[in-house]
Description:
By secondary structure, the chain is an alpha+beta fold. The chain folds into 2 domains: 1-36; 37-272, CATH 3.90.470.20. It has helices spanning 2-36, 56-59, 65-71, 77-98, 155-161, 164-171, 175-196, and strands spanning 41-47, 106-109, 115-118, 123-130, 133-139, 143-149, 208-210, 217-220, 223-224, 228-231, 238-244, 251-254, 259-264, 267-272. Strands 2-3-4-5-1-12 form a 6-stranded mixed β-sheet, covered by helices on one side. Strands 6-11-10 form a 3-stranded antiparallel β-sheet, covered by helices on one side. A 3-stranded antiparallel β-sheet has the order 7-8-9.
Amino acid sequence: MNETLNFQGTVLSNLKDFNNFTIFFLQAYRIFVIFISTxxxxxxxxxxSDFQHLSEDxxxxxxxxxxxxKVTGYKNPGVRRTKLLGEGMIRRLLFxxxxxxxEDYLIRIGEHGKxxxxxxxxxxxxxxxxxxxxxxxxxxxxxGIDIEQKRKARxxxxxxxxxxxxxxxxxxxxxxxxxxxxxRYWSVKESFxxxxxxxxxxxxxxxxxxxxxxRPRIFxxxxxxxxxxxxCPVDPAYKCFVCAETTEEPGIFPFLVRISSCRMNNxxxxxxxx
Length: 274
């Protein structure tokens, strides 16, 4: 009898060791793949309306304590929800893609709002939202992303802020074609400024966007910037572009919803996860 129990205990112990080794191996393999994939560029998006069934209290465990304190000071509930979902998506994806828990990294925000993840390796990400969508870009190199819901072109804005060559191109069009080009210009310009980290502190007229090839190109003082700018077809009613140093085509994925449970302050919440 004792021999049987000892044998069962040995088997269970070995299985536990095997499971621990398997988890360690898979985690190590994931990190190895990330390190050799230096051109990795991933885009994730979510629809805010898909999360309307979750209260703000249910979203709090997704984010850091600093964000909770900051968000509770906003009067607009739509702004609060967007902030919570945006950071929640970032933190969930940092765990899924890099295996990073909240305590494993620090998110630093630059002077003009450009974020950087400091951990055992560097991760660049960028976030944007418009209308019903939030989009996030992840890379090992600097990256910027912008999404814009298409509406009527605001030519008074273009004449005030766009490059003269862009204004001329817009004035040559009318109706839907003009609307389409206006928001293509706007999204590319925003993604570039977010890539540089200067934000709207730099003039939109200080560089020109050209759509005369396979991809948009950016010129400053007639000099071509060596960057990759790609369209992200999230929704036909939106324009979305990502600007990065990588030469790889971005992978574009929905932020899928799965209900799981979490405990915070002795209360249970239902949380979205990937």
